[in-house]
Amino acid sequence: MKNKLVTHFHLKEVRTKDGNPSKHPIYLRITLNGQRSELSTQQKIEKDLWDKSAERVKGRSEQTRTINAQLSNLENKVNKIFLRIDSNDKRFTLKILLNELHGKTGSKITLLKAYENLISTMEKTVNIDYCLFHSKTIPLFHSKSIPL
Fold it and tell me: Which residue range is the domain that position 76 belongs to?
């Protein structure tokens, strides 16, 4: 299946009580197979500094270059994640892409479970990767208290 990804940066309108212009937050809109989501980039600028067609901040100041670099990095990160997931040739959802972007992927394993997996691996590989000494100490790992 062919997945389609579209990304756009835009300014969010800010309403102030007194009508004075203020800084506008920059948002990233991600559209994947018709599903749309917006993410804050945590950046704010004045509206007159925004180049709508380039979807970047106008100017040559240090702050402008920093913000534009962060926007490019975010866009590249989204594209990398998309390409990695899309390489499976399966249709996927925007939620999967966003979870990957926020680092909420993969199964979470507890320390105890990781410890049990290590002991299990050690038991299977005694005399292969682990010496005979470990075959005598492995049962100690299973006990509730280890004698000191």
Answer: 5-101
